[in-house]
Amino acid sequence: MVLKYYFDLMSQPCRAVYIFLKVANIPFEPCTVALRKGEHRTEEFKQKLNKFQLVPFIHDGDFKLSESVAIFRYLTREYPVKDNWYPKDSKQQARIDEYLEYQHLNIRGHCTLYFRQKWLEPTITGKQPDPKKLKILEGNVVNALDKFQEFFLADTPFINSQTVSFADILAACEIEQPRMAGFEPRDGRPRLKEWIERVRTECNPYYDEAHVVLYKRVEKAKQSAQARL
């Protein structure tokens, strides 16, 4: 029975797992979940598909699993995956784990909160965010990105490594997200800019495939900004 993958490509971790499944050549049945329509909020969804009512998640036969990092680690154990994605060497694997644990309250936490306040909630509610609060949130994003570049990209082309790993995919997907809110994370960060392009190159055509909707919204945001000038 083929693995079923439930996802919405508007979600950063969903994009990361999607790209990994593709580049690792793991067969799967794509099962899209339209978060914008609230498909994940029904009681039927909770009872039959995922008790947490979140994406991404997988059904591998009778086994069900949520959380992108847990899914990734499971896949590397159950499927023939190239060593660079999650090295068997203990110290190299620990470097990948270091970022996977770090990112929740740092890159993911700050980029997601800014995106939600600046773009997602105004889009849903029609209410504009508090400028003072938004300035604080943007400052948190700036600080998180600067530290990411300093801590993880100082001496190596990928996250504390010479080769691309799942940590790079996950980080890149998170860092792409604020672009939809008009914030460009690459500006003033040459190492981060070069790193994102390396990750994209290593993972294409699937990186671009997973980001099609995001790219369109980023372009729309740029056009709207130019029209206001």
Automatic annotation (TrEMBL):
GO terms for biological process: glutathione metabolic process. InterPro entries: Glutathione-S-Trfase_C-like, Glutathione-S-Trfase_C_sf, Glutathione_S-Trfase, Glutathione_S-Trfase_N, GST_C, GST_C_Theta, GST_N_Theta, GST_Theta. It catalyses: RX + glutathione = an S-substituted glutathione + a halide anion + H(+). It is found in: Cytoplasm. It comes from the Eukaryota. Residues 1-83 form the GST N-terminal domain. Keywords: Cytoplasm, Transferase. GO terms for molecular function: glutathione transferase activity. One of its GO terms (cellular component) is cytoplasm. CDD domains: GST_C_Theta (cd03183), GST_N_Theta (cd03050). PROSITE patterns: GST_CTER (PS50405), GST_NTER (PS50404). Residues 89-224 form the GST C-terminal domain. It is an enzyme of class 2 (transferase). Its EC number is 2.5.1.18. Homodimer. Belongs to the GST superfamily. Theta family. This is glutathione transferase. It comes from Exocentrus adspersus.
